[in-house]
Amino acid sequence: GKVHDARVVRNSGLFRRLQEGIYFPDQKITVGDVEMPIVILGDPAYPLMPWLMKPYTGALDSSKELFNYRLSKCRMVVECAFGRLKGHWRSLLTRSDLSETNIPIVIAACCVLYNLCESKGETFMAGWEVEANCLAAAYAQPD
């Protein structure tokens, strides 16, 4: 849309709930033998928060550059996943009039259905994502 994602997030109920610790308060997952906090990935425009991982800025040493590179790769995977979901379910392209509590349920259902399609060999057509991007541009969000 016309407004940067960081601004949309900062003005959302999601941001408030994350700040209040309502969503994943002190929850951790174990990856290998390492316990990790659950975080949202953001770009440099996002504010640094305990629940939001963003790249380092300024003069960087090689370890911070490597971190930024890997974080960027993770964000690309997430962007691709959202693009594929929107390609499958066009209802995710437009404004939702669902209640705020139902939106995560609908998105989770889309993820489950997507995985079911994949497991049954229903291939994703690249043209769907291209078409979804064109439709998303046609339905640009207001300022």
UniProtKB/TrEMBL annotation:
Protein's name according to its UniProt entry: DDE Tnp4 domain-containing protein
InterPro entries, sorted: HARBI1-like, HARBI1_dom
GO CC annotation, single: nucleus
UniProt KW keywords: Hydrolase, Metal-binding, Nuclease, Nucleus
Subcellular location: Nucleus
Keyword Nuclease: yes
Cofactor requirement: a divalent metal cation
Pfam hit, one: DDE_Tnp_4
GO molecular function, one term: nuclease activity
Principal subcellular localisation of the protein: nucleus
DDE Tnp4 domain sequence ranges: 1-115
Family the UniProt entry places it in: Belongs to the HARBI1 family.
